[in-house]
Structure formats: C-alpha cells, structure tokens
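S1.2 Input.
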Amino acid sequence: MRMYNAKRWIMLGIVLCGPLAAPICTAAQQSKHQWQRVYTGEDSVIEINSSAVTLQPERILRAEFRTVFSKPETIGRGESSVKYKTSLETIDFRMDDHRYRYFEIALLDTAGKVIQKKTADASVDWKVLKAGGINERLFNAACMLTPLGTWKVVEYRFADGDPKRITALEELDRLIGMRVHLHFDFAEVGSSVCSSPLYEEKDQTQQVARELDIDWKAIGIKPEFARAIKVKCEGSGWASRQSLLVKDDREEMLMLWEGVFLVLKRAPAAEIHKPSLKRRAN
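S1.3 Output.
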C-alpha cells in the first residue's frame, strides 16, 4: 500500500494546507455510516463516502475515498518528516472510456487534522483503469451508489397528490415490480432502453421544483436533503427524451416517468442486471 500511495502523489501538484482545507476537514468529520468499506489490505482499509458521489459534466463520476492506515505513514525524510494516518482522495472517473485521475488528495494526522493537501491541474493525464486493479474496484463501488445501479419499482406517486385525474390506474399498477437499470452507458426502464444516457446533477433543487411546479413534500421528499439529477436520453429508445431522479437521505429514489413519479428501491444483489454487449450497442 505504501508504494501505491506514493504513485498517487507523483500525479498531483502540491498545495499548502490552509483555509482551502476546510471542506476536507468537514468531510473527515462526517458521520460514520456514510463511509462504506470497499477494500481491505494488510496495513490499510479503503472506504467510499456514500454521500459524496456526484455526476459531473462530460460524463465524469466523482467520488471520495478514505484510506486509513493501521500505522502512521511518513512524509519526507529526516527532521522534516511528518506522519499521517489517513488519506482522503477525490477521484474523477471518465465513464466514456474508463479512465481516471485524482482531483484532490489530503493527508490527515492521527487527530484528523489536515497536514497536507494536493490538487491536480488540467495538465494531469487521465490513466486507464486496469482490469482487476484497485482503481477499477473503486470505480465499481462508486457506480453502485445512487443513482447508478439496478432498481425495482415498488410504488408510484403523483406530483399534486391527487390520482383522480389519472384514468389509467390499472396501467400504472402494472409498473409495480418493473426493473429500472441505470448505468453510465445505458439506461433501461422496463422494455424502454436508452442507448446513450446523460446524467446531470442539479445544484439548485428548489429551482427544479419551481420549473416543474412540484412540492417536494407532496411527493414524499425532504426538501432539506433533496437531490435532483436530470437524465437526458441522447440516443434512441425513450419516447420521452428526458427524465428526473429525486433523492433525499432515505434509501428509496423517485424517477419521473411519463408524468408519474416511480418509487424505486435498490434491487437485491441476486437480481442485479448485467447488460449484454448487444444491449449496450443499441
């Protein structure tokens, strides 16, 4: 693991720790349940921050990882050497061609204080994700977090809370149990397959609510935790070229589909969908 981390540092330029380190310090103090273990080594463990996986422009998936060492590691040599216990890494994964690069790395001492931070510049090359490598494992872990993955429709809701205007309730009832597969290279809702989806994280969730004339509370979403992601179908396969994913701090997620919000829950591991090459090529 020591050589592995040394390679990470070579890829980045140094930024001295100062006021800019505050967001990292905040991340280090987040509650324990947000961190999920994805790798266990002989002298360290790597965890992913389940609440810090975001979809960036140009099909980039950004995720935050934490490497905790069993014994403090050393930076530098001689009298100038400094020890750190934890490394926080923000990694960008380019989903179109399976490449990655480190956006930011911070080193924390045993007390959780940032002692050094390094940030990548635009000149840093994107590296290929090697099959079976540790970074591919981290990428796969990020892909399994919201909103990507395999889901199941368990319910549906109306934006205005009034189902009387809907005449085809029986058709909506047939949606219960339907599978929804959201991946970086295809999106599938029942038999409708989008061959080239584009996910766009929306920072202003209240603005999204106003644009769609939706009250988050009316559809069972906590406004203070609301997260909105637009899904645009750039390829063929969807009658409606755009959808909306809405998530708060609970396990379920909502998906706007043909005027109705589908309530999605993540499918059990045994039911996870593995796309065929034929489907992905559509």
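S1.4 Remarks. The two ends are 41 Å apart (CA to CA).
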